Amino acid sequence: MASQDLTYQDVAEHNTKKDLYVVIHDKIFDCSKFVDEHPGGEEVLLDVAGQDATEAFEDVGHSDEARETLEQLKVGTLKRNPGDPKPKTPAPGAVSPQANNESAGLGVGLYAVVLIGGLVAYAAYQYLQQQQAVQGA
């Protein structure tokens, strides 16, 4: 099938299990033949049928293999018209201006502090129990 330029309105008409288009990074994919094979189940695809699925696709963190499969389903490119919704997620590899990489390790550090604190508390409890047993004997 030759690549074609379609509008959001054109894509929106393909919103059923047997005729399912999605937009990802302004490329249009026909997922109709892939619905039954999709590892996440057909409901996931049906939820974004005929819509921009960029955010949903990127949020899941698809593998390179999934991205290759997706490329095989490409049927066209999105032709944006004035008033069309803007993409919510930047293209892969793009740096988000609001990205704050300095606090990326905060979650791991917090878990480490909690874990170490718990171990110290357990050791102190065991020590006190042992001291009580020695004094009571």
UniProtKB/TrEMBL annotation:
Keyword set includes Membrane: yes
GO MF annotation list: heme binding; metal ion binding
Pfam families: Cyt-b5 (PF00173)
InterPro entries the UniProt entry points to: Cyt_B5-like_heme/steroid-bd, Cyt_B5-like_heme/steroid_sf, Cyt_B5_heme-BS, Cytochrome_b5
Protein name: Cytochrome b5
Entry's localization field: Endoplasmic reticulum membrane; Microsome membrane
Keyword terms: Electron transport, Endoplasmic reticulum, Heme, Iron, Membrane, Metal-binding, Microsome, Transmembrane, Transmembrane helix, Transport
Chief site of localization: endoplasmic reticulum
GO CC, alphabetical: endoplasmic reticulum membrane
Transmembrane stretches, start-end: 104-125
Membrane-topology annotation of the record: Single-pass membrane protein
Any GO BP: sterol biosynthetic process
Family, similarity comment: Belongs to the cytochrome b5 family.
Region (Disordered): 74-100
Record-annotated Cytochrome b5 heme-binding domain positions: 3-79
Domain of life where this protein originates: Eukaryota
